[in-house]
Structure formats: structure tokens, C-alpha cells
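Chapter summary example.
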Amino acid sequence: MATTKAPDAGRRSDRSRRAIHDAALALVTEEGYRRTTIEGIAARAGVGKQTIYRWWPSKAAVLMDAFLGLAGRTAEDTGGAPQPEGAAPSGGSAPGFPDTGDLAADLKTVLRATVDELNNPVLEAVTRALTAEGIVDAKLGAEFVQQLLDPQLALYVTRLRAAQEAGHVRAEVDPRIALELLIGPLMHRWLLRTLPLTHAYADEVVDYAVGGLTPRA
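The structure predicted for these 217 residues follows.
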């Protein structure tokens, strides 16, 4: 008599989680964060509401988990921060952050990629929702910084320290403050929609910032 194979609970759970992630991301993009509900996510994913609450305590937690998964898949697809064509990273670079020996060029490469991500409609709605919610929900904001922002900012710190060791950045410069000179203007323009966020703007930000970081004659 043929044996009946037991259902793979782990695989079913993975499918359900992915369906919930996809549903949350789609609804936030289509309806906005405020109009997205646990009930709506459950209906779109084809699961029961209690299935969601078994894994996540809130709508914000679902979205955070979904966004981290999306960011991870995006990084896998792109291989991390883009490398300049034909350039080989040197020994001092952080994984995923180019180090061609030209600090300004490397920063422009990464900031241009950041502009593309912020302008990506799939990522933009979710990033805005999590950023806004993190302002009023301190716990969510701290989780967003710890899980997503800090690992990315650490790459900037490592690259800037390598530039210091190479004599391309003044020794007294604080890398954490320096990276905020680079990222802050982009986020300000993107969050407030003051002006278009473009590659040309990213390049100018790098030129202005690097001019203040390099050794003085």
C-alpha cells in the first residue's frame, strides 16, 4: 500500500510568510500605510488573521519584516552596492562598498544607487511608511535603525576610515558625522520632496562634502 507523505509544515509556513509579506508590501504601495490593515493583509495573502498575529504583534511589525526581506532580496539581486565597471575592490574596502582608491567616485557610485532605491516605487512607499511610523513609534524606529540603517551606515564608516588611513581624509574627521553630510541632504530632499532627487544632485553633494573632508594645503 502506498504511503501518504505528511505535509511539510515548514514549507507551508514559508509560503504563508512570503504571501503575507507580499500582501503587506502591495497594500501599503496601493492604499498607503494608514489604510492598510491586518484584516486586509490576511485577505490578500489568503490566510487567517490569527496566522498573522501568531508571528507578528502588529501591522508595523509585519511591514518591517516584509521590508527587511525585500531589502535582502534586492541586495542579493544587485550583489550589494554597485561596483564601478571594470574596477576591482582594494583590500581596505568594506564588502558591498567600492574602494577604487578614488573616494569621491566611490561615494558617487553608492549615492547614485541610493537615489535609484529611494525613487523606486516599490521601495518608496514602504520606506516612507516605516520612516513616518518610526517617528511616532520609538520601538519601531529603533528597530528600523538597528536592523536596516546601522548595517548600511557601517559600510560608509569603514570606507571613510580606509580613506583616512590612505591619507585621503583628514585624520581628525569623525566618519559618522562625515557620512551624515552625505546621506542627510538626500534624505531631506526625498522626505520633504523639496526638489527632484537625481544622480546630478548626489554627485554635487559628494563634491561639496569631500571638499571639506580632504586634507588642506
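To summarize the output: The two ends are 86 Å apart (CA to CA).
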